[in-house]
Amino acid sequence: MAKAFFRLQKFLRRTQFLLFFLTAAYLMAGSLLLLQRTRLVIQQGSRGSPTNQALPVPEEMGRVGIIDPRTLQSPRPGPRLLVGMDALQEPALDQRHSPHWLLSRNSELRQLRRRWFHRFTSDQEPLQSSGFKVMKHTAEHKGTYMGCFTHDSRERTLKGAVFYDLRKMTVAHCQEACAERAYSYAGLAYGAECYCGNTLPAGPARPEECSSECRGQKGSVCGGVNRLSVYSLEQLRAAARTRRNVIYRGCFRAPENLTDIFPASLIQPNLTVEMCSEFCSKKEFPLAVIRGQECHCGYPTRHFSLRQGTDGLRCSGTHNTSSAAGGEHCLVYQTPVQDTRCTDRKFLTTKSKVFVALSSFPGAGNTWARHLIEHATGYYTGSYYFDGALYNKGFKGEKDHWRSRRTICVKTHESGRTEIEMFDSAILLIRNPYKSLMAEFNRKYAGHLGYATDRNWKSKEWPDFVNSYASWWASHVLEWLKYGKRLLVVHYEELKQSLIPKLKEMVEFLNVTVTEDRLLCVENNRDGNFKRSGAKQKNFEPFTQEMKDLINRYILTVDEALRGRNFSGLPREYVPR
């Protein structure tokens, strides 16, 4: 009996070892197979189309500069429509290349684009919270704690500016941001949200209900669920007054009755800009209007839109004096207070029946356009990607699945037929390729708000980047023109120059009705928090003549493709350099 048991034990040990060996062999074989396939894909991509090599342009495009996407299979030359293009020297290129080759050739770059895009969006350090200056995270802060209060995001007591930082929110960050905007109180909720205002909330809550830990400061409390940790900022307001920015908006013809248009007014002998700005800031108004000894506070409205300024000499004598140039003109200043009439946003209450894309080449201003659309419509925008840095900036649609249809439109940089045909309609945002390439290169090396260094521009990656991405700029527009079902083409430069008219077109395309005052609020907050900071190089020209020749030929191609679909051509400033 003992002998039989010993044999059985020996057999089981051998079986256990055998199973272990087979499992290890199976895992090793799978790993080798995966590596071999990966190597094969890379080799095929490098043999078929080196990503660091400039793409040739078809002779038909070089000679004519124009194609119609509807005739890609059999292109025929057409007249040159761009003014001043005849001076462009076209190199002799192989005739076997066709515009169809331009589209198919760029599909091979799609994997490269996605790898770069997803790698940098996932690895990117979160942006500093909107409006916050870089500060040390310390456990101490100067504000006076007022207590825990109830909070309703729909009917806020602290009705001023709102900031989000879902990774690095601290009490000190929130206090500093509100103090620099001349608010008296700062409130924190959910561990990551900061609210500013000048009125203390009326509904107190139990202290233990404010129990959410600050996302960027362990051991500190940042409110709770529907609860605000509120601080008084009197000491910080005095310290921040010297750093506060009061922006001169210009000289304007005064309305007939200022007191009817502006909700708050003050008459003060020897009135100064600082006095008026401080008064309007405490009243939580973004505009301070001075006419002689009168100070008026309010918002831009259809009765006072700030669109047509006059000669500043007409306001001479208005500033710091009792004279008001006959009372016909007034000086207007932007206070540190944020215009909050258009800052409320939410997800769609019912799923959208029309699936709309906000499509652009990277660096074409997609994030800025999303900021404008969200504030104009009051609805979040979605994204084909997930960018944690943008989510931390308050784009809550980033975490929502892009096909949920709970957002007003969905950001995408994709340009394949399958990805395009998934959408029912699209806003196609186009920007000058020279500016787009530089903006995307800056984002790649310095994030959404920074600038690449001289070392980056002088490295070998810049010419490789241009050679690969310039053709993508062209193919992105061509493929959306070819496969897009319903398009609204918006040029970044025209949107920037004529914000309200172009934004109206975009909002109407999205089938949303908005008020004139809300659009004026968007115009008042047009930059949002997406202007690049840091030292910008003056008279900087990173493009070689070879790069310009390549980009210019793509400009000609895209311009004629737009005209062939009865859209307006590219703006004049796109004309090759």
UniProtKB/TrEMBL annotation:
PROSITE patterns in the record: WSC
Entry keyword annotation includes Metal-binding = no
Q: Which InterPro entries match?
A: P-loop_NTPase, Sialate-O-sulfotransferase, Sulfotransferase_dom, WSC_carb-bd
**Classification via SMART domains:** WSC
- Coiled-coil regions listed in the entry: none
The UniProt keywords, alphabetically, are:
Repeat
UniProt-recorded Gene Ontology molecular function terms: sulfotransferase activity
Tell me the ranges covered by the WSC domain, including all copies.
Answer: 142-234, 245-342
**Which family is this protein grouped under?**
Belongs to the WSCD family.
Q: What is this protein called?
A: WSCD1 protein
Q: Please report the organism this UniProt entry assigns to the protein.
A: Certhia brachydactyla (short-toed tree-creeper)
List the gene name: Wscd1
